Amino acid sequence: MLSLIRNTVVKTARMVETGGNALVQQSRARLSTGSQQQQRTFYEFRTYCIRPEKNASFIKLTNEKIHLRTAHSELIGYWSVEYGALNQVVHIWKYDGYSMRAGVRAALAQDPKWLEEYISVAMPMLTSQDNEVTALAPWTPSLQGPPKQGVHTLWWYDGADQRAAADRDARLLTAVKESGDLLLSQRNKLMFPCAFSPLK
User: Fold this and answer.
1) pTM, whole model, 2 decimals?
2) What are the structural domains, with CATH classification, of the chain?
3) How far is the C-alpha of 180 from the C-alpha of 10, rounded, in Å?
4) What CA–CA distance (Å, rounded) separates 71 from 117?
5) How many angstroms separate the CA atoms of 197 and 16, rounded?
């Protein structure tokens, strides 16, 4: 299981509110031309919302055709959301840079098997797609699998009870207390790995 926690910080929201559209455009320009381009490895989190009646069919199709996608870049993990949002899947792809991602996307757009056997069948099953680019914190060595299966919150636990106990950890409570005034919202998802997910 993976427990994914997303935090939205007030500082970011205030910047967008005060800067309006110009700030959004400036941020987009920095993303494509700024120092982020020098960052090497990053991870793309993709979230797909699936039509409720198509959830099982989508997972089955992806299980059968994921090899067409993994031929182009590395899949870190693929999960089905159990709690926090229904009929969703979350998957993480690793890229060695923005130019690599652009090359992968261009190659996929020209791959007839990918387009005919997967995209043309899968897209009508979805209601929406979302993606986020995430770089690891400097002190994080790499995004690797745990030594065994368990519950994950960007770190791993032996089970849900151990994960719940972590919420009572004094260090975590102190960190939350000290940064709580910056937190605008928090979303949690409990997810189970799909059979074809490298990260379990």
Assistant:
1) 0.70
2) 2-193 (3.30.70.100)
3) 10
4) 14
5) 36
